[in-house]
């Protein structure tokens, strides 16, 4: 009589159960890949904004425009770089300038990412802050903190607790 080779039914069932348990444990990690990708994208945009703002500030220091606040809409401090003429506030690019270029003209933002201005996304005029993210809707209030997936650039001397002479970039990623 020849001896048969292979797995018994019990061994096969045990292996299937073990694989099922591993899949249940590993699935949440793979589900969060979308969240991680969104956060990484926002981190990259934030880093690009910081680099662009800091480089503009260096140019403003060279030209003597680094310590000037915006005195009027008709005579803002500015610097000219190869990308164009940028309006400044304390040497940093404005969020939404009156006539020149602003911080968003220095970074490349994908069309799938929403950009809105103001303390919420409902501003239709000059604003000292800009929100860049995924779950923003033009004309509506910003999402609550647990639904937020965006970053905010606040120009120096702007509203919302940013009274310093330096910009801030704040990340809101609990809802990504």
Automatic annotation (TrEMBL):
The chain crosses the membrane at residues 12-31. InterPro entries: N_methyl_site, Pilin-like. Pfam families: N_methyl. SUPFAM superfamilies: Pili subunits. It comes from the Bacteria. Keywords: Membrane, Transmembrane, Transmembrane helix. This is Type II secretory pathway, pseudopilin PulG.
């Amino acid at each position: 009589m020849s001896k048969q080779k292979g797995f018994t039914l019990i061994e096969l069932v045990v292996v299937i159960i073990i694989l099922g348990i591993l899949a249940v444990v590993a699935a949440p990690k793979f589900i969060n890949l979308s969240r991680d990708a969104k956060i990484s994208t926002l981190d990259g945009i934030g880093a690009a904004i910081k680099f662009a703002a800091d480089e503009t500030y260096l140019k403003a220091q060279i030209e003597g425009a680094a310590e000037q606040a915006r005195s009027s809409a008709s005579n803002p401090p500015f610097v000219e770089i190869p990308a164009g003429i940028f309006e400044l506030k304390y040497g940093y690019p404005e969020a939404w300038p009156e006539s020149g270029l602003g911080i968003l003209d220095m970074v490349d933002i994908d069309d799938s990412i929403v950009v809105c201005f103001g303390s919420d996304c409902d501003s239709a005029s000059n604003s000292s802050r800009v929100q860049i993210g995924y779950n923003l809707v033009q004309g509506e209030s910003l999402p609550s903190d647990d639904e937020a997936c965006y970053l905010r650039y606040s120009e120096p001397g702007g509203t919302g607790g940013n009274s310093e002479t330096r910009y801030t970039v704040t990340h809101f990623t609990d809802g990504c």
